[in-house]
Write a structure and sequence with these properties.
Protein cms1, Cms1, alpha/beta
């Protein structure tokens, strides 16, 4: 008997893992340390250009000066492109307190500064095509709450900051495997905890769809595919590795009803890193989830809001 994505008992305890595990072994994702962000082949190319320059300088030919001028011009363009990328990465100044509790403009700059780290070899123009626009980032500063952003406050946060999401969560989806909410968390245990909170009757009402928990440990990809194809879900909570595979390698996770993507930014791991400060999960989010053709299109067209919680 196949085990579905929502078959874990509420009191089932899992070993905490980052999203990148099990059958989510990457084939195309490049893992980067923060200090490697701006190290690319441009530096090596500059060194090669200088060597070529010296070699040609020792040879005879009427085109030497012209070739040297072209090489200098090319190096200047390379430096200019790298400077633009550095500027993007430094766009977000350090934000005191909770990153998530900032205005959309600050959050947009923060997201692009993280995005640069996942795409170090793209030009500034290419990065701009992938950028999450400020208009697509939900304004949640109106929620002050009785305490800091935590799972204890998630239901109240959605009720007061995202009323349209609360309404949609209380309605059953028309299609199987088509959630209105994608909630991205960095670890399996965190996914299980969030799933329990989102099953709250205050959010779901009597008609709300199921809440799927999607991560690699204990569940094969095929099991989640089977579950999603036979189940109407209102929310899908998952690790970026599993969500990315479902979005890009199967047709089981349908984004036709998607209206919100919540990034679980406030939660930090044992090393005090949030979701986007862990290189593996950051790369999976930007390269496989937010870079999915249909997801990115929905964000660009204003149909999907990105929420930092």
């Amino acid at each position: 008997m196949n085990q579905g994505g929502d078959d874990l008992d509420d009191d089932f305890v899992l070993d905490e893992i980052v999203a990148f595990s099990g059958d989510e072994e990457p084939e195309t994702i490049t893992r980067l340390d923060d200090e490697d962000v701006f190290v690319d082949h441009d530096d090596e190319q500059e060194g090669e250009d200088e060597e070529d320059e010296n070699e040609e300088g020792n040879g005879a030919g009427i085109n030497v000066d012209s070739n040297l001028a072209k090489k200098r011009k090319r190096r200047e363009k390379v430096k200019e492109r790298k400077a633009k990328k550095r500027k993007l990465a430094e766009a977000a100044e350090p934000i005191p307190g909770s990153i998530a509790a900032q205005m959309p403009h600050a959050l947009a700059n923060y997201l692009v500064s993280m995005q640069v780290k996942s795409f170090p070899n793209l030009s500034a123009l290419e990065l701009d095509d992938l950028r999450i626009p400020e208009s697509a980032i939900a304004q949640t500063t109106i929620w002050t709450g009785p305490g800091p952003r935590s799972l204890d406050q998630l239901v109240d946060f959605i009720m007061k900051s995202l009323p349209s999401l609360r309404l949609r969560l209380s309605q059953r989806s028309k299609s199987n495997g088509a959630p209105t909410l994608l909630y991205i968390a960095g670890a399996a245990l965190r996914v299980a905890d969030v799933t329990r909170v989102l099953k709250n009757k205050t959010l779901q009402g009597d008609k709300g769809g199921d809440v799927a928990k999607l991560f690699a440990k204990h569940f094969k990809l095929a099991q989640h595919v089977t579950y999603l194809k036979r189940t109407k879900i209102g929310a899908a909570v998952g690790t970026p590795g599993r969500l990315g595979k479902l979005l890009n390698e199967t047709d089981a996770l349908n984004v036709s009803a998607l209206s919100h993507i919540i990034l679980d930014i406030t939660y930090k791991d044992a090393k005090n890193r949030n979701l986007l400060e862990i290189p593996e999960t950051r790369d999976e989010i930007f390269q496989t989830v937010l870079n999915n053709e249909h997801v990115l299109k929905g964000i660009k067209e204003g149909k999907v809001q990105v929420v930092l919680f």
